[in-house]
Every structure is written in structure tokens, then in C-alpha cells.
From TrEMBL:
This is Serine/threonine dehydratase. The keyword Iron-sulfur does not apply. Pfam families: PALP. It comes from Roseivirga thermotolerans. Keywords: Pyridoxal phosphate. SUPFAM superfamilies: Tryptophan synthase beta subunit-like PLP-dependent enzymes (SSF53686). Signal peptide: none annotated. Its cofactor is pyridoxal 5'-phosphate. Residues 19-306 form the Tryptophan synthase beta chain-like PALP domain. The lineage of its organism: Bacteria, Pseudomonadati, Bacteroidota, Cytophagia, Cytophagales.
Length: 316
């Protein structure tokens, strides 16, 4: 049996660490959506989480896992939005400075939210190289500790707590599906399923314009996309090597969807479930709608990752 750098005990400890600071989010279902899909879908609503996204879990776990002396120097990260808010909120709770690098193209609603938590924001070009170079410069100048948005075992442990809650509530699930960008949530979800019930199949949805995980799984090694493009702005990060080591053996399949399919899925959730989700969040549901035959007759857990969307720029 494969061994991983994150144990079940690590995930349990992460859950105890973050519980005082997060919401235990509800699980919702929709009869009309179930009829359309031909399966029972159970949506874990992390759009109702602190900061409006699951990233609060990983960010809080990573910051509060740091030794006090390290933490006191502050934390630095790069993110298009939700992880930025997670680290900014965690740093505020811990009473330490947060330095956040965000691409110029990040949604204004996410930039404003990060500012609202008192973080120091630096805008950069919308490329992975620019994000990494700017973060490294700030880390050198401030002595702050860098926390990767996804390629960090403490972040993965924190994200794993979402599927832990879902599988503890609904142990009869056959399948779990998440979106995938950098891979923190998918890696954490795959580990949780592996430890709690390894008969649960784990899949992910990924945007066509940022399909590096799909390509990496096909090739068996990391494939990098230099300028990913998608309406799913939260999924433009490059898959991390720590995440890929977990995802490759444990995740059954990556399902790729177009931006128009993402928009249609997002609209259906807004209309049928009366809840606000962002485009990145709609990706796994878009993958289910596109591949109904894979899910037919199953009980499927879908992680709705967040609801931080600029309402002035709705795609419908």
C-alpha cells in the first residue's frame, strides 16, 4: 500500500486545529438536478464557508501550524483570490502581517476582500513566473514565511477536512468530485477517501484552457501550461508536485470542460438551488452534466468550492 506525506492522523489534527475558526458547511441536494443528471448529487456548500470559499481551511491550518517565532515574522503567498483571502484572514486572527501577491487580472471583489482583512497587497503580471518572482522578492525583503496556495502539506491537510466532513455525514457516497487547479483540494479529498473508504472513487473537473492536470495524468509526469485562460479564475494555478504525487495514484479521472459548459452549469445551480457560486466552483458539476453516463445511479458528493464572484461581471 502506498504511503503518503499526509497521514489520517495529520488530517484529524488539522480538523481539530481549524474547527474553532471555520463553519461546518451544509450539504444540499436538488431533486430537479438529480432528475436531470440521473444520479443523487450531494453538494458540500463551501460557498458558505468563512471568506466564501474552502480555502479558509488550508490557509488557517497552514498559518496556525507554524511555530510562534516563525509566524511572528508574517506570511507571504500568491493567489488570484480565495487563498489570498484565507491567508489574510488567518494572519489577522493570528495577529501577524500578511503579504499577498495577486495578478492584476484578479476579480476586484477578491482584491477588496483581501484589503478588508488588512493584508499588504502587491499586484503582478498574470503569469505563474511573475507570481513566484514577486513572492520570492517580498519574502526576502520581509523575512515572512512563504505559504504555497496548494503545494504545501499543511494546506493539503486543511483542505482534506472538507471531504472528511462530507464522508462522515454521508458514508454511503460512491463518488467524490472536486475542481482542480493547483491540486490542494483534490489531493486532500483523495487522501480522505483513501483513508476513510477506499472504495469511493475520486474524480475532478478541469477547465479546457487550464488542463495541465489532465495532461499530466495522461503523460505520467507534470506538464506545465504557461498562460492558462479560463472563466474559472480560481483554477489557473499550475499543479504542484506534492499534490501530483497524491493525485496520480488516487484519482480515477480528470474530466475537462469548456468555459461555455462551466457557465451553463453555474447558471443551473443559481437557478435551481438559489445559491451563489463562482465559475471555478461550477466546474465539477459541468463535468457531471457532460459525462452523465459515468455517474448514473450513483450517490455523488460534489464540493462547491466558493461563491466569490464579481456581481458586476456575471457571464449571464
Amino acid at each position: 500500500m502506498a504511503t503518503f506525506n499526509v497521514s489520517w492522523q495529520d488530517i484529524e489534527q488539522a480538523h481539530e486545529r481549524v474547527k474553532p475558526y471555520i463553519h461546518r458547511t451544509p450539504v444540499l441536494s436538488s431533486e430537479s438536478i438529480n432528475t436531470i443528471v440521473g444520479a443523487e448529487l450531494y453538494f458540500k456548500c463551501e460557498n458558505f464557508q468563512k471568506i466564501g470559499a474552502f480555502k479558509a481551511r488550508g490557509g488557517i491550518n497552514a498559518v496556525f501550524s507554524l511555530p510562534k517565532e516563525q509566524r511572528s515574522r508574517g506570511v507571504v503567498t500568491h493567489s488570484s483570490g480565495n487563498h489570498a483571502q484565507a491567508i489574510a484572514l488567518a494572519a489577522k486572527m493570528a495577529g501577524v502581517p500578511a503579504y499577498i501577491v495577486m495578478p492584476k487580472t484578479a476579480p476586484q471583489v477578491k482584491i477588496a476582500a483581501v484589503e478588508g482583512y488588512g493584508a499588504h497587497i502587491t499586484l503582478c503580471e498574470p503569469t505563474q513566473a511573475s507570481r513566484e518572482e514577486t513572492s520570492a522578492r517580498i519574502q526576502k525583503e520581509t523575512g515572512a514565511v512563504f505559504i504555497s496556495p496548494y503545494n504545501d502539506f499543511k494546506v493539503i491537510e486543511g483542505q482534506a477536512t472538507c471531504a472528511k466532513e462530507l464522508l462522515e455525514e454521508l458514508p454511503e457516497l460512491n463518488t467524490l468530485i472536486t475542481p482542480v487547479g493547483g491540486g490542494g483540494l483534490l489531493a486532500g479529498t483523495a487522501l480522505t477517501a483513501h483513508y476513510l473508504n477506499d472504495k469511493v472513487e475520486v474524480l475532478a473537473g478541469e477547465p479546457e484552457g487550464a488542463n495541465d492536470t489532465y495532461l499530466s495524468m495522461q503523460k505520467g509526469e507534470l506538464v506545465r501550461i504557461d498562460a492558462p485562460k479560463s472563466i474559472a479564475d480560481g483554477l489557473l494555478a499550475t499543479m504542484g508536485d506534492k499534490n501530483f504525487e497524491i493525485i496520480r495514484p488516487l484519482v480515477k479521472q480528470i474530466l475537462v470542460v469548456s468555459d461555455s459548459e462551466i457557465i451553463d452549469a453555474m447558471r443551473m445551480i443559481w437557478e435551481r438551488m438559489k445559491i451563489v457560486i463562482e465559475p471555478s466552483c461550477a466546474v465539477p458539476f459541468a463535468a457531471i452534466l457532460k459525462n452523465k453516463e459515468l455517474f448514473e445511479g450513483q450517490k455523488v458528493g460534489v464540493i462547491l468550492t466558493g461563491g466569490n464572484i464579481d456581481l458586476g461581471k456575471l457571464p449571464f
